[in-house]
Write a structure and sequence with these properties.
The chain is mainly alpha-helical. 69% of the residues lie in helices and 0% in strands. The longest helix has 24 residues.
């Protein structure tokens, strides 16, 4: 088996354009999926904080 570390100091080879476009397309699709997941998922910390604040406001209003 050839030592892969021998190629570290070699000049970088150009990637074929079709491979580069496929990789960039896959990255764009992954980014889109991540952004859509963020839109449709819940931020649990924010929900808990909002519920606690609303309960405190209601309790303070009921006491007065």
């Amino acid at each position: 088996m050839e030592n892969p570390f021998k190629h570290i100091n070699q000049p970088i080879k150009e990637v074929p354009p079709e491979l580069k476009s496929k990789v960039m397309s896959d990255i764009a699709m992954a980014k889109l999926i991540m952004e859509l997941a963020a839109l449709f998922s819940y931020n649990i910390g924010d929900i808990i904080e909002t519920v606690v604040k609303n309960r405190n406001k209601k309790n303070n209003q009921n006491l007065t």
